[in-house]
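Posting for a labmate who doesn't have an account.
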Amino acid sequence: MAPTMANNTARIAEIDAILQQGVVEHVVDGETVKYDLDALRRERRRLIMSDDTGRHRRPVASTINLSGFRP
């Protein structure tokens, strides 16, 4: 059996959305939801470090700018 690879992309996107809003507390259908933004940042960092989805691509070492190229 092959080892499963971590894909944390969905959870990272959820955390990014919460952090972008900057809301610490809100009410949904009478239920109060509170966020610890520091804890979310720590969880996001941990998820990124353990995420395997982007590890198979090599970083770009250079690019070629063809914006001035005319045939």
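Reply:
Got it, the structure tokens are right above this. The two ends are 53 Å apart (CA to CA).
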